[in-house]
Specification:
single chain; 334 residues; alpha/beta; five-stranded mixed sheet; 11 helices; globular
């Protein structure tokens, strides 16, 4: 097991990065923050048996690598950065192991505390989106099976309080609400270090979804949130929910924005003739396999929606749309 990294903020607070496998081959970063009498656990993994085993092993490693007598039962508060299962799926286990209360932003509260309802409603929205995108029934059924595969493990778990921008947070952390990748996504500031969760990552661009599936996602919200974080002064380092540290946060934000703008330009080129979302996705990302087909379609949907909302794209098959209950929409440059 690789070494744990520790980061010291300008206020001499320690942040331990605990990488664990949320799913086989897919690593998520949990963070422990020592701040006065507080030991804050930021995110709690996916809830798989292997993920929980690795978290326990990381606590053992804290004691051997740093000679810090830290037990998981020493955690005073669990902070969930956003409502994606690789970050909150282990919440019930974590609350039992720590005895600590949990917090999340209000726009993601129902994902954690009314999970079964959320899965049903969200799956219907995804299925309708895929039908409108032009995905045929058989592959659509396969994509839905993959979408639901990991969602049966978690059970609704209440949170004790809410993370709110401008309101006091445990340990003196500063909360910044940044919707886009997820409705309740937050970044947490620890002096000159920003825990960026999945809002900004060091190498990849976080997957974007259209508001047609989930409110408060969408590329427009994401652009606004990127701008908001870029205006924060005094940030020396970003720590993401995946991958390594971000040494120059403002430059990285600029790179992410530029990538999305180039994708928007590419969509406009593709839509010189009428195209379905499935056709646009294939042109934009090329052939994909397994779950990456769904991710590409959803990402494409976010970009097409952004352009459609702003009058850059129009629906070209109005007669078909008028006569069909959930039609495949063909997009064309206006």
């Amino acid at each position: 097991m690789e070494n744990i990294e520790v980061f010291r903020s300008s206020g001499d607070r320690r942040i331990y990065a605990l990488p664990v496998e949320a799913f086989p081959g897919f690593v998520v970063n949990l963070y422990l923050i020592e701040s006065g009498d507080h030991l804050l656990m930021v995110d709690c993994g996916s809830g798989t048996d292997e993920c929980q085993r690795q978290i326990e092993a990381r606590f053992d490693q804290l004691r051997t690598q740093f000679d810090r007598p830290i037990q998981i039962s020493d955690v005073t508060t669990i902070l969930i950065t956003h409502g994606h299962i690789d970050h909150f799926g282990g919440l019930r286990w974590a609350k039992e192991a720590t005895g600590a209360p949990a917090a999340v932003h209000i726009l993601d509260r129902r994902v954690l505390s009314n999970y079964e309802e959320r899965v049903v409603v969200a799956s219907k929205a995804v299925e309708a989106f895929l039908e409108r995108a032009g995905v045929d029934p058989e592959p659509r059924s396969g994509l839905m099976s993959m979408y639901l595969f990991a969602k049966g493990r978690y059970r609704s778990t209440p949170v004790e309080w809410l993370l709110e921008e401008g309101a006091p947070a445990p340990g003196g952390l500063e909360v910044h609400h940044v919707p886009g990748h997820c409705p309740g996504q937050v970044c947490l500031r620890v002096d000159d270090i920003l825990l960026t969760a999945d809002h900004v990552l060091a190498r990849i661009t976080p997957n974007q979804a259209p508001e047609a599936i989930t409110q408060y996602t969408g590329l427009g919200h994401y652009f606004s949130s990127l701008e908001k974080i870029s205006k924060l002064d005094g940030i020396r380092l970003g720590l993401g929910g995946h991958e390594g540290p971000i040494e120059d946060l403002k430059t990285r934000i600029g790179d992410i924005r530029s990538l999305h703008l180039s994708r928007l330009d590419k969509v406009m080129e593709i839509c010189q003739t009428p195209q379905s979302l499935t056709e646009i996705s294939l042109e934009l990302f090329g052939p994909r396999k397994s779950y990456h087909v769904l991710l590409a379609l959803i990402e494409t949907g976010a970009h097409v929606e952004y352009l459609y909302q702003r009058g850059e794209l129009c629906a070209s098959n109005l007669e078909e749309i008028e006569k069909t209950s959930n039609p495949v929409i063909k997009y064309l440059r206006c």
